[in-house]
Specification:
Layout lengths: L15 H87 L4 H8 L3 H33 L9
Helix pairs in contact: 1-3, 2-3
Length: about 160
């Protein structure tokens, strides 16, 4: 048997125009793929920038909240100090009104001197009595405590 001789088939040569079209198509595809990679990289970078900005926002908001909390505490302390000063000044007004009243002025005269209503004058005089009573009580407690501390040990034992 005679074997059929097969000769390698030669590939048909492409025309120059076809080769140019194929090369242009490959180049367009390569350019498209490169552009796609660049777009994806821009998207990744934009996402990284977005996340970094989000972290900066969180840090700034936390710092702001800490400062606001500190300032709020300071404001509260200032308000408390102001309340204490005002209370002290009200007590002083009351003691002053009481001193006028105890010096022989009537409630009407005290009200006229202070340019307040009689009701307000009565309130001031009462507040002065309360303030004076508290001051006396505080002084007495301090005096008793001093006496108790001054008693030496052993006195009164076994006598």
């Amino acid at each position: 048997m005679a074997e059929a001789q097969t000769t390698p088939r030669k590939r048909a040569r492409r025309s120059t125009a076809t080769s140019r079209k194929l090369e242009a198509a490959r180049e367009r595809l390569a350019n498209q793929l490169a552009e796609e990679r660049q777009r994806e990289e821009r998207i990744k970078q934009a996402l990284r920038d977005y996340m970094a900005a989000g972290e900066k926002i969180a840090v700034a908001e936390n710092a702001c909240e800490e400062k606001v909390a500190a300032l709020t505490n300071r404001i509260e302390r200032l308000r408390e100090q102001a309340r204490e000063k005002v209370a002290g000044a009200h007590a002083q007004q009351g003691r002053s009104a009481l001193a006028m009243h105890e010096a022989g002025r009537t409630v009407e005269q005290v009200a006229d001197l202070l340019a307040v209503s009689e009701k307000k004058a009565r309130q001031l005089i009462a507040a002065g009595r309360d303030a004076a009573g508290q001051a006396v009580a505080a002084h007495q407690v301090g005096s008793v405590a001093g006496v108790i501390r001054a008693v030496p040990y052993g006195i009164g034992e076994g006598a």
